[in-house]
Specification:
By secondary structure, the protein is α+β, with helices and mostly antiparallel strands. It has a single domain (2-153), classed as 3-Layer(aba) Sandwich (Aminopeptidase). The protein contains five helices and seven strands. The longest helix is centred in the N-terminal third of the chain and has 15 residues, at 11-25.
């Protein structure tokens, strides 16, 4: 396995991986008339990559099996975003490696905390975040699910 920075040539595989995730966990959003629903996946990820931060991929024999990003927010805040691991490669430590890569990067920037948002229905992801030291800070109820904000202090 090879953990490396995202390259433009990775876009198709990243989109396939995201599509797999969305179809399993958020099928109702695929046809919803929302801002994100109106943008196709390629437009969404082009936006993420050009405007929001950095991405890394985990590659296994030429296949992207996971990816993760970091998004820079106002007020010096940094968010971990878009953690995705191919279903066939879950429970192999890939998510942990990707998260640790982002945390290492954030520390090099001198940041002391990292945040992430997830949904109540993503139980496996929440369990991983909590195992890695992320603590739920707050929740926001929506009609479909609860959005949970987690935070981790990187310097203790």
């Amino acid at each position: 396995m090879n953990l490396r920075k995202y390259h433009e040539k990775d876009m198709n595989q990243v989109l396939q991986l995201h599509d797999e995730f969305e179809s399993v966990h958020f099928p109702e959003f695929r046809s919803q008339d929302t801002i994100l629903g109106k943008l196709n996946l390629e437009e969404r990820y082009s936006y993420y990559l050009q405007q929001l931060g950095k991405f890394w991929v985990m590659e296994d024999q030429g296949m992207i099996v996971g990816f993760i990003g970091v998004q820079f927010q106002p007020e010096d805040r940094v968010d971990l975003i878009q953690l995705r691991v191919r279903r066939s490669h879950q429970r192999r430590g890939i998510g942990t490696q990707l998260i640790k890569k982002v945390e290492e990067y954030v520390v090099t920037l001198g940041k002391k905390q990292i945040y992430l948002h997830t949904a109540d229905r993503l139980v496996k992801a929440r369990n991983l975040y909590e195992k890695l030291g992320y603590i739920m800070e707050n929740t926001l109820e929506s009609s479909e699910f609860t959005i949970m904000t987690y935070k981790k202090d990187l310097f203790k």
